[in-house]
């Protein structure tokens, strides 16, 4: 799976001939994010597979420690994001804000047709899922009301 994800990300990067002008433009590129995620996934699963097949304690411990490191990185990033957004004074003190990075990303949004189409597709899918959930919830509420009314009248 990791090899497939890496191959897809690399293929998307290869198809796009446009070069990044800034590091933030490169880092916000979905193909780069997909490729990096795939490479990390390949190495972690490789340690796990080879470690269990060969019953190698060192590789199994490496798998354990790498998964622990990934978990702690996710936790630390989550805490940083929450703290960063909850304290505007801290953002001003550090002279950095994620808003600036995303403002640049929005400016570059229409420069790349593939990125624009991909983000539009994701946004439409998210909207469709949200609307479907709201519709299902309203149907469930109406059905429970109808059942309650039927129980009262019978």
UniProtKB/TrEMBL annotation:
TM helices/strands, residue ranges: 31-53, 65-85
UniProtKB keywords: Membrane, Transmembrane, Transmembrane helix
GO cellular component: plasma membrane
Pfam families in UniProt: Tetraspanin
Keyword Amino-acid biosynthesis belongs to the record: no
Subcellular location: Membrane
Membrane topology label: Multi-pass membrane protein
Statement: the UniProt record of this protein carries the keyword Transcription regulation: no
Protein name: Tetraspanin
Species in which this protein is naturally found: Lottia gigantea
Lineage: Eukaryota, Metazoa, Spiralia, Lophotrochozoa, Mollusca
